[in-house]
Design a protein that fits this description.
The complex is a heterodimer of chains A (306) and B (148). Chain A is an all-alpha fold. Chain A has helices at 4-12, 18-37, 40-46, 69-88, 92-111, 118-131, 141-148, 161-186, 194-209, 218-222, 225-240, 249-270, 275-278, 291-303. Helices cover 65% and strands 0% of the residues of chain A. Chain B has 148 residues and is α+β, with helices and mostly antiparallel strands. Chain B has two domains: 2-39, no CATH class; 45-142, no CATH class. In chain B, α3 crosses α4 (88-103). Classes of the chains: A mainly alpha (306), B alpha+beta (148).
Amino acid sequence: MTGPLARAARWWLAPAPPERLAALRMLVGAYALVYVAVRLGELHAVARLPAAQLRPVGAARVLSAPIPPAAALAIAIATVALLAAFVAGYRFRAAAPAAALGLLWVTSYRCSWDVALPTENLMVLHVIALACAPAADAWSLDAARRRRAGAPPAASAAGCGWAIKLLAALTAATYVLAGVAKLRLAGVEWIDGELLRNQIAIDNLRKALLGDGIAPLAIPFLDHPAAFTIFCALTLAIELGAFAILLGGRAARVWALGAWGFHLGVVLLMNIWFPYPLLGFAFLPALRAERPFRWLIGRARSRLPS
Amino acid sequence: MDRAFALIASIALIGAALSPLVRRPEDDGFPLSTYPMFASRRPRQLTMSYPLGVTADGGRRYLSPGLIGSSEPLQAASIVEQAVGRGGAALRGLCEAIARRVAASPAHRDVAAIRLVTGTHDAVELLARDRIGAEREHGRCEVPRSAP
């Protein structure tokens, strides 16, 4: 098979170490697990709000009325257990899709009582993508069970490279959409900085009037409108250039660093925290995520008596 | 896992992730968001209701969400807006509840009274130059202090 489509398919399916995908499974899965586990109390409290406040979004759109709070809590606890299996790579073929569905439901139901938080979107998309991938072929309880049974290691015919590229593409898509939204809603004049300056001023003023902490760099920059033109140009360059992450190597890492810097800027100017990208999870597909695990395994082996 | 599945799953998920491009940008969703968060036009003026602590010498102190009745800023703002909207007993009740919390807070010993106001401010002028806009008072109550 030849031609551009065949070449694109070959590039998409180019091999990558199964350990890299396994590392992504463990890291992204662990983030999602902690995310749900630390919010169990909040999820239960929110589910007891008056029914009139329910505005179903995402998977919760099937609802016309709230589910009992105990059921909401039970689904969240089951999701935590399924995500633990996801991280460990235990019965992955069954547990991973169930964990992804559970996470989609829990986050959708939570957002149905409040404003949808864009920090959760990419985490959910990454878990869904990993659930479709052969992410437990290495460093998993499933792989250990196969080894003990004397079976050959699982090796997907499609390899693991496509799944890592898929995670990178999903990261890129979220940033490109954010850039396109700015151009669609405000036009190219978004770049002059006035709109962003107003946004930052209003957001910080609302916090100040409620006695909440304002961002450390907001006030120094509000008196310098020209700085916002630079911020806007950089923001659009990062967002619309997000597919650079698919190039891999240095280009992907430079883009990831720029995107991380953008989120740091949002903290310093607006005191708004996006933990998934700020902690680097959004950019893991651009990195050699298996390296820390290899290092840890090497250290553990060197300490074992020979 | 075969190559056809890998390609179909990839196309389906990327297509779904990019599908908000065919929706109106204001039509946000979850988890397939249009990401309108920092894209919408915003005026520079903000009108909102909030409580103010007033010190004995007439100084103003902004009060934290916890003193209003919720540690969550958005919920605290909603509590104030609802009380202002209802007026009368709801407004007095909120003012007195805030005053009791302020009385119990060692960090607010200098606050003598609570005002519930709706203010309209130019956000840049107030934050960068301390120029306060117009404020309309809806209610006022004293902070209960026991005699020394």
